[in-house]
């Protein structure tokens, strides 16, 4: 499409400057509750994208030698600026993405926690030393930055996931090129502006916009050493294969089908509250949404109570007070979710709560779908096999905990899972036997705090090391092992004196 001068344009960030793109290809950023066009985002030209990488490469020459305390203090300032601008950031995020204002603040806050962790880089980027591994010989390791790194982030967490990536990459001494989702890049750009204000030097952080061409440039560019990705399995698999074949380090966090198991001894009211938030919060648009529920034994009688609880959730625009479920991000997303619900019905699942076509006063054009629940779901059904990425919960039944565990382990994905119980023995058995990277015990969305790493597994992840935490310090650094031996120059007949004598 062509650019209209009446609508604001999203800028590129190259070399510390906000740059108006010269592209002829633009995309509208649309408020999903109203269909209002908020701004237009450019699909950067090849020249502009190459300029961003070149800027990062040049900045690395000096940034890599910047004292670790200087880097740390920038992130101390950055976390302060994020806190001071929390309301503004959340309002931007809600307008372009749709999630409720409390969810939007949570999105920013979970990213802020990683920024705080990055400020402690002096304690994280430590090597090891072994003294006297042989007579007069020491061996030690250095954790040195790689160079230019890049990140590709999704629409569903446009604050948190960029903040998972570039703060830790930059804190460890790398420079960064970020490609946010073209659907909602405005809050990401505001975070980039605050990073500049905090003292991130020109060229250390660059932002480009675009679609497949931008993704492929990041995968192919010889000056980019590592790529971090969060998004769909289809795109993540493409990124991993293409970038790793180009010799880069790659980490890809991808699709999911997260299961929760309810044992009959679980705390009923607390568990139902947790389930409705985990299944329908953020309109189900999160890779850690609890999208499958397995009711074990007598807990199968809880289904009517779960439906009743889901019916109490308020569907409205994200900026409206008291909203529980906002719109999904786009008309295309709404169409896909509605299509999958139809397939669920046609394949024999029982639609016990139909959230399609809710009437939302004042927002009749919004992309709304309310909480939707299927029961009698079977593993071969489309609604079970595919990640719906909407407020749709699949309910299954099992006679025993082991039967439920077997069902989960047979699913190809391994992002997250949760067990609700009061039994310590059951909880320990579950955490030992389940083949999923992130496990919650009475915690419905077990995303770890930043001291630990995000640890999705199996089909949900490609690459050995996860985002943030200790693992990402390894991902963004090269371990260099040094073995050294020094001789006493006063030692008669030592190699140093012998060398001098030979001269």
TrEMBL record:
UniProt-listed Pfam families: Aldedh
GO terms under biological process: L-valine catabolic process; thymine catabolic process
Ranges where the Aldehyde dehydrogenase domain occurs: 20-482
InterPro entries cross-referenced by the UniProt entry: Ald_DH/histidinol_DH (IPR016161), Ald_DH_C (IPR016163), Ald_DH_CS_CYS (IPR016160), Ald_DH_N (IPR016162), Aldehyde_DH_dom (IPR015590), MeMal-semiAld_DH (IPR010061)
The keyword Cytoplasm appears for this protein: no
Source domain of life: Bacteria
Gene Ontology molecular-function annotations: methylmalonate-semialdehyde dehydrogenase (acylating, NAD) activity
E.C. numbers: 1.2.1.27
UniProt keywords, alphabetically: NAD, Oxidoreductase
PROSITE patterns: ALDEHYDE_DEHYDR_CYS
Family: Belongs to the aldehyde dehydrogenase family.
Protein name: methylmalonate-semialdehyde dehydrogenase (CoA acylating)
């Amino acid at each position: 499409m062509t650019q209209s001068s009446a609508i604001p344009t999203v800028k590129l960030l190259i070399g510390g400057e906000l740059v108006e793109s010269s592209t002829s290809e633009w995309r509208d950023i649309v408020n999903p509750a109203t269909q209002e066009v908020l701004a237009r985002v450019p699909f950067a030209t090849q020249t502009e994208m190459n300029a961003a990488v070149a800027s990062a490469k040049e900045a690395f020459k000096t940034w890599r030698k910047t004292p670790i305390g200087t880097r740390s203090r920038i992130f101390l300032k950055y976390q302060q600026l994020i806190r001071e601008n929390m309301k503004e950031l959340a309002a931007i995020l809600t307008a372009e993405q749709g999630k409720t204002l409390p969810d939007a603040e949570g999105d920013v806050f979970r990213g802020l926690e990683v920024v705080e962790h990055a400020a402690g880089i002096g304690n994280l980027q430590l090597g090891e030393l072994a003294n006297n591994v042989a007579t007069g010989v020491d061996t030690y390791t250095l954790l040195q930055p790689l160079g230019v790194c890049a990140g590709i982030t999704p629409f569903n967490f446009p604050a948190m996931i960029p903040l998972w990536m570039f703060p830790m990459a930059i804190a460890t001494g790398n420079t960064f090129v970020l490609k946010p989702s073209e659907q909602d890049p405005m809050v990401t750009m505001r975070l980039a502006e605050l990073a500049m204000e905090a003292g991130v030097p020109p060229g250390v952080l660059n932002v480009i916009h675009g679609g497949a061409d931008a993704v492929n440039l990041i995968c192919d560019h010889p000056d980019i050493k590592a790529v971090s990705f969060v998004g769909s399995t289809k795109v993540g698999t493409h990124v991993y294969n293409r970038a790793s074949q180009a010799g880069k380090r790659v980490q890809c966090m991808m699709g999911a089908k997260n299961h929760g198991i309810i044992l009959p001894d679980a705390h009923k009211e607390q568990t139902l509250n947790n389930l409705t938030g985990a299944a329908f919060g953020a309109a189900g648009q999160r890779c850690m949404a609890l999208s499958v529920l397995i009711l074990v034994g007598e807990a199968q009688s809880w289904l009517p109570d779960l439906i009743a609880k889901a019916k109490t959730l308020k569907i409205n625009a994200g900026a409206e007070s008291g909203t529980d479920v906002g719109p999904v991000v786009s008309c295309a997303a709404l169409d896909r979710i509605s299509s999958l619900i139809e397939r669920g019905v046609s394949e024999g699942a029982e639609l016990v709560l139909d959230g399609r076509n809710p009437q939302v006063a004042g927002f009749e054009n919004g992309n709304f779908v309310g909480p939707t629940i299927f029961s009698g779901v079977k593993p071969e059904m489309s609604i079970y096999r595919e990640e719906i990425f909407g407020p749709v919960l699949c309910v299954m039944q099992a006679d025993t905990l082991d039967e439920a565990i077997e069902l989960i382990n047979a699913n190809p994905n391994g992002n997250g899972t949760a067990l609700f119980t009061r039994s310590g023995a059951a909880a320990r058995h579950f955490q030992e036997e389940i083949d999923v990277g992130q496990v919650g015990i009475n915690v419905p969305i077990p995303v770890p705090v930043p001291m630990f790493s995000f640890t999705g597994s199996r089909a949900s992840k490609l690459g050995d090391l996860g985002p943030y935490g200790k693992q990402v310090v390894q991902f963004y650094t090269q371990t260099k092992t040094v073995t050294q031996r020094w001789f006493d120059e006063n030692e008669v007949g030592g190699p140093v004196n012998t060398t001098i004598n030979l001269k």
